[in-house]
Write a structure and sequence with these properties.
- The protein has helices at about 1-15, 35-45, 55-65, 85-90, 105-110, 115-125, and strands spanning about 20-25, 45-50, 70-75, 90, 95, 100-105, 125-130.
- The chain is α/β, with parallel strands linked by helices.
- The chain has a single domain, classed as 3-Layer(aba) Sandwich (Rossmann fold), CATH 3.40.50.
- Strands 2-1-7-3-4 form a five-stranded parallel beta sheet.
- Strand 1 (about 20-25), helix 2 and strand 2 form a beta-alpha-beta unit.
């Protein structure tokens, strides 16, 4: 659960006005270190779980295709899926080193002009975080 809290805090700091959705497979509940905290966060709607037996990738990619301003924060390259170039350009990897979250420089490229970008984020931009615990 610590990774979730670190990523959430880092994204909220970097993109304070963005709408961020956290998606995960239903099986994630069996992989987390603090099941009660995970269930509480899911019940509050902070993490969206896909239906049992359904991987999050399909829902994540479908939502992103339907939402042209959406960026996806994920280390997944989605090689199992045929995705359009525009969508693959919107996948932004991130890693955690210790207690620091480091986003790909591609995120900074999307946010070069912060004033304009953040005004745009308030209205249209959506971020999806595909959250893996393994």
């Amino acid at each position: 659960m610590n990774n979730y809290y670190l990523l959430k805090q880092a994204l909220e700091k970097k993109l304070p006005d963005a709408v961020i959705y956290y998606l995960t497979d239903a099986s994630t509940r069996y992989k987390v270190d603090d099941k009660k905290a995970f269930e509480r966060i899911c019940a509050a709607g902070e993490i969206i779980q896909t239906p049992a037996g359904e991987p999050a990738d399909h829902y994540l990619l479908t939502f992103a295709e339907m939402t042209p301003d959406c960026l996806i924060i994920s280390c997944d390259r989605f090689k199992d899926h045929k995705i359009i170039k525009d969508l693959s350009d919107r996948v932004i990897p991130a890693i955690i080193i210790g207690s620091k979250v480091i986003f790909s420089i591609r995120l900074d490229a999307f946010c070069k002009d912060k004033k304009t970008t953040f005004q745009h984020l308030n209205k249209d931009r959506r971020f999806l975080l595909e959250f893996h615990f393994t």
